[in-house]
Amino acid sequence: MISKRDLLAHSLDVTGIGRMLRAARAWNGVLVLNYHRIGDPSDSWLDHNLWSATAEDFEWQVAFIARNFDVIGLADLEHALNQPRGQFVMLTFDDGYHDNFSTAFPILKSHGVPATFFIATGFIDSPHVPVWDELAWMSRTTELPFLAENDWLPSPVSFVGQNRAQGFRQLLTVYRTAGSELIGEYLDFLADALGTGRCPAAMSDGQWMTWDMLREMQAGGMTFGGHTVNHPILANSTADQQDWEVGECRRRLMEELGQPIDAFSYPNGKPCDFNEFTRAALKHHGYRWAFSFSGSYCPPNYADHFALCRTAIETDIDLPQFRAVTTLPQVFS
């Protein structure tokens, strides 16, 4: 069933109202779009939700925003936020997947469009399968029809047919709410209970960028920011753990890239995923900007530079919906 929101997005295209709104410049401020992976996930055993767009759709999206808006890089952010009028769009990526280099970077470069990549440095220094991908792999490979309720999961989890995707989301919810120190125990429990074992380490082969790739992208006009070392949900971590994740990430990026790092994006990025200890750690280690993942955009003179809004771009956003998000973010982002 098509939602009212989707119907409205498509009607903007069909009626030509979207084009009129773009000409009238119906919003002012900074719209930050967030991506994770670019490409086709159909053959992957990992988390399909991490793919934001196919290569073809991403190229169309980049060309569209370059044609219709002022695309800015991280160095332009302060100026853009202080402008009373103007439609500024910024592109960001989280985590550090290899397709950011192999697929997204050539497209960005061909259109002369900058982007900022937020890197979880542990994936670069010691490539491994992240929790969400391991949970997706377990959900896809288990032969059990369901998992009974247990100390981790308050209700049964079904892996029958179309319920498998919902089952994965149930497993993911526990990861997002459990303390960081419990995640290994949780994965070991699921490995045994689902009969899958832990995800093979070889699944991480070729999944992540390297420092040399980041340096090549930097030379090509891209910028970088922190995304922790190990990608914990920071609010589920102690103040000391948060301080180390934030500070060590920045140290490694500066060591490898040779430039100051003053921007950060919160893993998962919802308002409940960071707290006053996170903000204190960011300030202590010299960050100036931090980005959430909760939708919306930043109007002129947006004051909270440690909770800058970002809007997720995902594969279920078709081209009319993308046009709607960028044309009327106060409604669609």
Question: How would you sum up this structure, described in words?
Answer:
The protein has helices spanning 4-15, 17-24, 55-68, 77-81, 99-111, 121-125, 131-141, 163-177, 183-193, 211-219, 239-257, 276-284, 319-327, 329-332; strands at 29-35, 37-38, 51-53, 70-72, 87-95, 116-119, 146-147, 157-158, 223-226, 263-265, 289-291, 311-312. It has 333 residues and is α/β, with parallel strands linked by helices. The chain has two domains: 4-127 and 208-332, TIM Barrel (Alpha-Beta Barrel), CATH 3.20.20.370; 131-202. Strands 1, 4, 5, 6, 9 and 12 form a six-stranded parallel β-sheet that branches. A two-stranded parallel sheet has the order 2-3. Helix 1 (4-15) crosses helix 13. The longest helix has 19 residues, at 239-257.
The percentage of residues in β strands lies in 5-15%
On the 0 to 100 scale, the average pLDDT is 96
Number of helices in the DSSP assignment: 14
The CATH C-level name of the largest domain is Alpha Beta
Q: Fraction of residues in helices?
A: 40-55%
The rough form would be described as: globular
Look up the CATH topology of the largest domain. Answer: TIM Barrel
- CATH superfamily annotation of the largest domain: Glycoside hydrolase/deacetylase
Return the CATH architecture of the largest domain.
Alpha-Beta Barrel
Total beta strands: 12
Order of helix and strand elements from N to C terminus: HHEEEHEHEHEHHEEHHHEHEHEEHH
Rg is 20 Å
Helix/strand-derived class?
Answer: alpha/beta
Indicate how many domains the architecture comprises.
Answer: 2
Distance between the amino and carboxyl termini: 20 Å
Main beta-sheet annotation: 6 strands, parallel
Unreliable spans are none
